[in-house]
Amino acid sequence: MARRPSGISGSRRPSVLDAPTSISRRQSSTGSRRPSIDPSRLVPMDRASHIGGTEDFNVVFVGAGNIMFGSDEGPWNHSFRFEHKLGPRLKVVALIDPAIDRATAVLQKKCETFVRSAYENTRVFKTLEDFVRNMSKKDMPRAVIVGSPPMFRGTLQPGRDIESQIMKCFPGVAMFIEKPAATGPASEIPEAFAVAKKIDEAGTLCSVGYMLRYLKAVQMMKQIIEENNLTVMATIARYACAYEAIAKPDWWDKAKSAGPIVEQGTHFCDLSRYFGGEVDMASVSAHSLEWDENAGTLSKMQVDETAIPAENRIPRVTAATWKYDSGAVGSFTHLVALQGHNYSCELEVYADGYQLKLVNPYVQPVLYIRRPGSDLEEMHTFPDDDPFFSEISVLIDNIEDIEEDPDTAQILSSFQDACKTYELTWAIRLAAEQNRKLKLESQKAAAAAAPAPA
C-alpha cells in the first residue's frame, strides 16, 4: 500500500497531532507484524532517500551531549541520523539541557553547516516544563528524542520521570528513549515497569535505543531462525571494551553509572534476549573479577580511580549464565580489558544444526554461519550498514505511517521489552556482587580461624 506524502493537506488522514487516538490504532495494528525486519529493507544511510512530504517535522531533543551530537568515543549521534532521514523537513524546535552553554555551542556548530535550516530557530531550555510554558502551537513536536543520562528517566519520581512528563505535555506524540531504561538502584526496577505500563496504556509510540537489533546481520540471523522453524538452544555473548578510550569518571563509578553490565553490557544482554526469549531471573548466576584482585590491575586508565570510593569501583570482568523460559541456556562475559579504541564483541546463537556467530557488530559486522550438511562456515559482511540510522528510520516511518501500511517495519524494542533487559542486567550485577560478598566473608572467617603466628 502506498503511503501518501504527509505534506498533502486535506487528503491525508489525521496525524498524531490531530488525533492522539490514531496512535493507539496504529500501535495495536503492529501486533500482527513480525518482531523482525526483512534485511533487504535496511538501506545504508548514504543510499537512503529523504522521507517524502513537505511539512515541517518538528522534533524536541532532550540532552545536548555525546549521544545526541556525537563524540570520538563511538558512532553515537542521533541528530546526524535525523538530518539524513528527514532532510529539509527536520526542524528541531527545542533543545532541552540544563547546561545552557554546552547546548548553545552545539547549536552554533550545527548552524555553520548545510543543516542550518533544521537548527536556526531552535531554542534552548533547561527543562521540558520551560519549553512547554514558552512554546507556541507551531512548535508542537512530532517526536521527542531523549538522550539525557539514564539516571534522569525510567521512574515515576519528579525530576526522573521524563517519559511521564512527555506524555502529560504531549499526549500522542512519539518518543525515542536511549538505552538503558534507567540506572537507579535495583529497588526501582518496578518503577521502570510502571512507566512501561503507562506508555502502553496511553498507546504512545515508543522506541528504545537498542540499535544492534537493527543490524542487517542480526535480522539475517532472525530470518534464518524463522524460515527454518528453529528453536534456539543457547546464546553465548562476549563484550570486551577498550577501557583506555573511556575517560568519563562517572562510567567508572557504580553509584553513578550502575556499572558496566547495566550501562554498557546491556546491548548484548538485550541481543541475547532477542534470540533466546524470556529469562528465568531466578536462574541467573554470576562471578566477577574485581579492581582489588591481582588480575584486575589496569595500566592505561584515563581516570583517577582513587577518587572513587572503593565500594563503587567497577569490576574488570563479569561472567554470567542463566536459563531461558524455553529451556535454552544463555551466557555473557563482559570485560574491561582492552586498550586502544576498538571493542571486541561476539554473539553466538546455536540451534539444531546451526551456528550463527556475529562478530564486531559495532564497527564492521561479520556473520559466520554453519548450516546442516557442512562443517564449513559461510562469511557474510555488511558494508556501510548503520543500525543507528535504521532504528531512527523505522521510528519515523512508523510516525508517518498514517496509512497503517502493513509493510512498514515494526519498532524492535519497546519500553516494556527494554525493562526486561534492564532487569536482566541488574540480576547479573547482583548475582556477581553476592558471590563476591560470600567469598570475602569466607576469607574473613578463614583468617579468623587461622592459628596466630608463633
From TrEMBL:
Residues in Oxidoreductase putative C-terminal domain copies: 213-354
Biased composition range(s): Low complexity: 1-14
Gene Ontology molecular function: nucleotide binding
Domain of life: Eukaryota
InterPro entries hit by this protein: Gfo/Idh/MocA-like_OxRdtase_N (IPR000683), Gfo/Idh/MocA_Oxidoreductase (IPR052515), NAD(P)-bd_dom_sf (IPR036291), OxRdtase_put_C (IPR013944)
Residues in the signal sequence: none
Location of the region described as Disordered in the Swiss-Prot/TrEMBL record: 1-45
Bias (Polar residues): 21-33
Ranges for domain Gfo/Idh/MocA-like oxidoreductase N-terminal: 57-210
Pfam families: GFO_IDH_MocA, ox_reductase_C
Protein name per its UniProtKB record: Oxidoreductase C terminal-domain-containing protein
